[in-house]
Amino acid sequence: MAATPDTAIRNVSDTALWVALYRAMESERPDALFRDPYARSLAGERGEAIVQAMPHGANLGWPMVVRTVVIDALVERCVREHGIRTILNLAAGLDTRPYRLDLPAGLAWLHVDMPVMVDYMRTGMQGEAPRCRLEYHAADLRQEADRKTLWRHPALSDPTLVISEGLLVYLEPDAVAALARDLRGVPAITAWVTDLASPALRKLMARQGWLDRLESSQAAMRFFPQEGTDFFTPFGWREVEFHSTVGESWRLKRSFRGAGLYRFLSRLMPRAKRENMLRMSGIVLLRPNHVGEEGQTP
Questions:
Q1: Is the pTM here over 0.85, yes or no?
Q2: What is the largest CA-CA distance in the chain?
Q3: What residues make up the domain containing 75?
Q4: Residue 118, phi then psi, degrees to nearest 5
């Protein structure tokens, strides 16, 4: 099906419908890795139309499924083992984790996104009960004033985990740097979970025509740091864990067509080349540098 104005991705917010549909498809499998009972209704007819309009769209959901599984596990572990009492979910889109994860009732969850997305999410989840203390916040994270207001929220005085799933790749490097600097300036933020793409992934997406397609739909991808997670070091952050999207897809048995052959051939690669391939994209857990470490201002 060719993309039309009704089925094409029009902007970054539309990608939330796209991702929600993939969560719905995974949830409906008999061997589902997670269950999101809200995803299909939130994706709606438009989310389904977007996926159907993409070439081989039904087969492209594996990275989103992997990302969801890994971040679910990181959130639950950080809350359970590291004393996190607040989740700051930036550009949260249609994330239903406060409704479906096993979370303490006293946990504060701040769901932050553009006003139109917050309104859509509120309407879609009307009548549903979250498992923790959920608050919706409309904010444009590109605006310094909105960010400063958010950083002053009382819940950010408790140990906080930040999630920026599906956000950074759509920002310019300067905007990512400003966000990293801002987050490091909030003392209670002790962990940051995000996904990260590499220049190698950018080249692959360019060859497949994805970058041009997203550029034309006002959902251009901008952030593919050559430094990888070292990009964050000058702003006071260090990599604690890196979960390769490809590597996790093999473990979870949710991968692309031909993954078996690709995995076999990867074993024949020189070690450095194989490691670079596995770090093409991934889910990262960052923590603040300690006082006196590189990149940290005492």
A1: yes
A2: 56
A3: 61-288
A4: -65, -45
